[in-house]
Amino acid sequence: MALDFDVIIVGTGAGGGTLAHTLAATGKQILLLERGDFLTREIANWDPGPVFVDGRYISPDTWYDRDGTPFQPQVHYFVGGATKLYGAALYRLRPQDFGEIKHADGISPAWPVSYDEFEHWYTKAEWLYQVHGLHGADPTEGRWSRQYPWPPVSHAPRIQQISDALERGGYHPFPAPCGILLNEAHRAASECIRCATCDGYPCMVHAKADADIIAVRPLLGMPNVRLLTGAKVVRLETDPNGRTVTSVVVDRGGDGREETFHGDIVVLAAGAANTAKILLRSASDAYPAGLANGSDQVGRNYMFHNSKAVVALGEEPNDTVFQKTLAINDFYLAGDGWDWPLGNIQMLGKSNAEAMKGEEPHLTKLAPKLSLDEVAKHAVDFWLTTEDLPKPDNRVTVDDAGNVHLAYTASNDSEAAGLYGEFRKVLNHIGMARHHVLHKNFYMSMTIAIAGVAHQAGTCRFGADPATSVLDVNCKAHELDNLYVADTSFFPSIGAVNPALTAIANAIRVGEHIAERLGVSASGTAWAPAPRQAPAGYTPAPSTWR
Ligand SMILES: Cc1cc2nc3c(=O)[nH]c(=O)nc-3n(C[C@H](O)[C@H](O)[C@H](O)COP(=O)(O)OP(=O)(O)OC[C@H]3O[C@@H](n4cnc5c(N)ncnc54)[C@H](O)[C@@H]3O)c2cc1C
User: Fold this and answer.
1) Could you tell me if the CB of 10 is within 6 A of ligand 1?
2) What one-character DSSP code corresponds to residue 449?
3) DSSP 91-137
4) CA 491 to centroid of ligand 1, rounded, Å
5) Confidence at residue 83, expressed as pLDDT on a 0 to 100 scale
6) How far, rounded to the nearest angstrom, does the alpha carbon of residue 327 sit from its chain's CA centroid?
7) Is 375's pLDDT higher than 80?
8) Are 50 and 26 in contact, with CB atoms under 8 Å apart?
9) How far is the CA of 430 from the centre of ligand 1 (A)?
10) Of the segments 93-102, 178-187, 448-457, which one has the largest average pLDDT value?
11) Which residue, by CA, sits nearest to atom 14 of ligand 1?
12) What DSSP string runs through 33-66?
């Protein structure tokens, strides 16, 4: 195969996959390098045992914490990256998140672009990823120029009851934006009964709007786009003065044999930790501390949200299948009795007895007369998110053997406690005072909180000042002419909502910039929702869901 390309993109997740989609219509020669393979469609996709108990889709990587203790990080190496497992909750940041915000533990810094500048790409992202939602329903949201392409997913009866009770209590529940591909033609939601939710599961019927299905697969027949799976990028090499990346070095067999590819432009989108790792492993005479790291910022400012999962029990059974349809941002910003922003409350995927196994002692204590099946039947699952601050000492480093070390201490614990306090009042309003905070990552069989790297971000932040940021406003490395980063690494702050839509919107933004730089237009890209087709050989069951 040809070894020279106009653009080489490393990683096919929310950032890399979307960037490739943005550039594909330009006709430029694009190479996508992905260390994983396509995630296999199999019954286990929807089985909580393999998924949650065995961690079937988690990479076998070993990383090390600040003290050198090994752990297995919750990273997913597939075409589509972490979005193959994500919950597809596709939120915009609030406008305030783009400015400086004071928090209990410090400052959440301003972005070099404003929400109003970014809004254009949020809209494109929502249309590309076919998001269901309702702009105008959340009082904290910013300006929006176009309604979501699809109406909100209707609440199941139990969630509708909760929403009504919240409104009666003076709260402002709104339909959670979600990227799932359901309509009468596809009728995939009926099949969701088997996996209960997108959250943490791959979708066997390809009804989740992930980067594989939405962004990468539609490009595979294009003559100008090549995807190489099983291609782990190990380092980048530059010209002697260090201004230009000349080679992307790939390990394709895991046996130390290396192949080299050349791109006029190289984009890293390997996820926040792995992008930092590649840069740090690309140290040279020109960059002794790692490529693009003259500022010593590569790997620093790692963030991942201060989150809590809470299972609440009501008298009424909860037979909801798709639970992630409701959210509240009433505590997102400071005010009304609390000094600091507290965060976002949203639903989690519906719990089930199998996935609760690890929590059994606590949960059965909570409801001693009930079996675990009964507990799961009555459970309503919530996810509380408080903003985590970028701290220079929360950082990714790499040892001589190439192992990732992740030093992390949570921030804003007092805000997280404040959010939990408000949430307890919410539970009182909805008749579910009995509840249980899950003390470990209940969705993955992991015992170390640091391993929950699902929302990793911030390791190569963008900014105007090369002394305090790695990337410029277009996400090009300050110190190099042809190196970009397009995953969640670029976040200067993470806000308190899920990060994927922002990564997607930014990848479109960066893609359009690169197209312009190459003298072509990315406007040929179709943003309208694509036809929704079930995969070959799949016959959907009848459904009443919309
Ligand atoms: C269980 C789970 C649930 C989540 N739910 C939500 C949600 O509901 N909403 C939301 O907004 N976010 C959610 N997230 C987070 C979201 O998926 C991530 O923020 C997003 O995918 C990050 O995009 P990215 O491009 O930075 O990285 P990724 O999507 O992870 O993509 C990185 C890609 O790079 C590849 N790669 C890594 N190293 C190399 C290398 N050396 N060479 C070549 N390729 C490499 C990986 O295999 C992967 O394909 C969830 C994540 C998880 C794990």
Assistant:
1) yes
2) G
3) PPPPGGGGS-EEETTEEEPPPSS-HHHHHHHHHHHHHHTT-B--TTS
4) 14
5) 97
6) 17
7) no
8) no
9) 34
10) 93-102
11) 86
12) E-SSBPPPP-GGGG-HIIIIIS-TTS----EEET
Q: What percent of the chain has pLDDT over 90?
A: 73
Residue whose CB lies within 8 A of the most ligand 1 atoms, among 35, 234, 497, for a mutation test: 35
- Report whether residue 85 contacts ligand 1, using a CB cutoff of 6 Å: yes
123 Cβ contact partners less than 8 Å away, ≥ 6 residues apart: 144, 145, 146
pLDDT of residue 456: 96
Closest by alpha carbon to 503, among 272, 273, 342? 272
Q: Find out whether the beta carbon of 308 lies less than 6 Å from any atom of ligand 1.
A: no
Residue whose token pair is 């992930």: 210
Q: Which residue has the higher pLDDT, 367 or 464?
A: 464
Distance from chain centroid for Cα 224: 28
CA distance 147 to 511: 23
Decide: 452 in ligand 1 pocket, CB within 6 A.
no
Average pLDDT, the chain: 88
Tell whether the model's pLDDT for residue 60 goes beyond 90.
yes
Least confident of 71-80, 422-431, 447-456, 492-501: 447-456
**What is the reported pLDDT for 358?**
53
**Nearest to residue 308, comparing CAs of 353, 346, 364?**
346
What is the best residue among 86, 249, 251 to mutate for testing ligand 1's pocket, by most ligand atoms within 8 Å of CB? 86
Residue 443: what pLDDT?
Answer: 38
Coil, strand or helix at 250: strand
Q: What is the spatial distance between Cα 227 and Cα 481, in angstroms, rounded to a whole number?
A: 24
- What is the per-residue pLDDT for 546? 23
Q: What is the mean pLDDT of residues 185-208?
A: 67
Distance 379 CA to ligand 1 centre (A): 28
Atom of ligand 1 nearest to the CA of 231: 43
DSSP H or E run through 161: helix 157-168
* Residue whose CA lies nearest to ligand 1 atom number 48: 81
Give the Å distance between the CA of 82 and the centre of ligand 1: 3
Q: Is the pLDDT of residue 181 over 90?
A: no
CB distance 445 to 438 below 8 Å = no
Token pair recorded at residue 51: 């998924």
What's the CA gap between 25 and 219, in Å, rounded? 9
Q: Among 9-13, 211-215, 323-327, where is mean pLDDT lowest?
A: 323-327
33 lines ligand 1 (CB under 6 A): yes
Place of tokens 């201060």: 306
The answer to whether the CB of 32 falls within 8 A of the CB of 211 is no
Report whether residue 133 contacts ligand 1, using a CB cutoff of 6 Å: no
Contacts 24+ apart (CB under 8 A), 116-121: 116/142, 116/143, 118/505, 118/506, 118/509, 119/143, 119/144, 119/145, 120/145, 121/505, 121/506, 121/508, 121/509
What is the β-pairing status of strands 258-268 and 245-251?
Answer: antiparallel
Instruction: Report the pLDDT value the prediction gives residue 435, as an integer from 0 to 100.
Output: 66
Distance 271 CA to ligand 1 centre (A): 6
User: How far is it, in rounded angstroms, from Cα 274 to Cα 298?
Assistant: 11
